Amino acid sequence: MMRILIVLTVCLCLTSLCVAQGDKTKPAEFADDSTLDAAKRYVEKSDKYLHHTKLARGMKGYGLTVMAGVEIVKFDAEIVSVAVSNGPHQDMILARLRGPGKEDYLTKTGIIAGMSGSPVYIKDPDDGKMKMIGAVAFGWFAQKEPIAGIQPITQMIAVSGVLDSKGSKGPVRRKGRRTGTSVGSSAEETKKFIARILSPDKAEFMKAPAGTPKPKVAGEKKMIPLSTPLTITGSSNRAIDQAEKLLGWRGLVPRMGGAVSPVDVKLAARAKLEPGSSFAIPLVTGDQNWSAVGTVTEVIGKRVLAFGHSFYSEGKVSYPMGPAYIHTVIANFDSFKMGVGLGVTGTLDRDEATAVSGLLGKGPATVPIEIKVRFGDIGRSQTFRYNLCKEKYFTPVLASILTSDAVFGWCNPPEQHNTRYKVSADFGKLGVYTASNVSNGDGAFDAVGDLTRPVHAMAENPFAQPLFPKSLKAEITILPGDIGLYMERVTVDGTEYKPGQRVTGKLTFSRFRKKRLTIAWKFDLPKDLPEGSHTIEIGDFYTQLYRMQIESPQLYDPKTSTELYESVKLIAIPQANVIY
Fold first, then answer.
1. Domain membership of residue 317 as a residue range
2. Which of 24-28, 175-179, 296-300 has the highest mean pLDDT?
């Protein structure tokens, strides 16, 4: 009689089983010098601009910006010097700023974050007219007086698409001072990221920044772009902390904002994009508003120039843009404008070293996301609706922060709690991705992971252009109680079995503040099992995911966008309330 020796292997996972109860990055390629030459000729022929080669120390003028509401005010500017070849094929104007008015607010606050793009005008020595020379854009860390680096208007007009009304055909990037850090993913980096996306370990898989944040350390010697305030309206402090962690390295400074009060709605309605007006790049609209705030430098036809430095130096982009309302200026170690976006009035399509640029008119497509949260212990439900900008890093990260904020925004879940969730992402022709599961004591961590995993994967798609979902949805229920079972011991009733025979045994679990639980288990051996020693593996859904990848590795080695999408779907199949 053939006998089979059973060797029992138990996979004990650390996670619980739930039962249903200004950096060093390589600069971008410089466009043909003819572009800069054309911009220089345009400026020299225009009656509106003054080329920086005509500037001399002591020349005086003024700048335009908004300090409160939507009113454009003047501040004083005096030329300190012109630093020729301050950057690759670039010059820089240095100016001392004062004002606005007799209060000389800038002497107290220093250069203000949010002033980026504020146009500066100096009297032309030839005809005595006040003409635009450029935009406030740079400063130094912890400087003691308000001396700003002014981006020459010539270098801003040289941004792709400004002199060509049809826009440029491709993403031209210019060498210069990098104001953020571009992910610039290599094929190898992207493959590593996809491997993280498909890892059975449902841990944090957001892509690590490829660059480094703008330096803010004592003794900073480099001229750096003014930081860009990211004013966040309608969110919790927890979300702002997450935004600082996940978005701060891009040169954004998350700040709590607020919508316009009913008293000032009519005032805000007058706002338009013009030189000196506040400028917003709304990353999130809807029940919350996340807007990067700066200032408009110039409007040429329907094309708007702003910032005087890049937003993220990505070249060709597609962000919403529109006017902003400024509540006030907060004077501190890093003074900033507290503002809010006022809607979308165009599309920002260029993000280059010397400026951002966009066309007035219709805004770009966004990704709608709906999040429904129910607190079972108090019987309260809330629904949140947002629209997210389409960008391979911003879209999944914002979806992650907003989903988590929806769970924690009204009140924290009970200390011991469990979560039931269902999420979906509509990828059009690829299909609708869905995932549902239960988790124990992790807030919305697993729900966020299952929702944003496909968004991350398809946005970082190494096989084609980034693909964004048409819509995202999440339904999350928070219930009180720890329902985790922690596997302690597994026993088997025998050691030798025949092919096709049923193996039986017992599983013992520990539980939080409850007695241990022992349950019976059984497994029918295959009838064609060969004689010898065999292993039965028992574990949770993590164990099952690892097993699936070992048994069918070809399913987790995608070669096309469709295969990548199908691979991501497999990660969501195993359930946390099932023993495998």
1. 31-179+214-364
2. 296-300
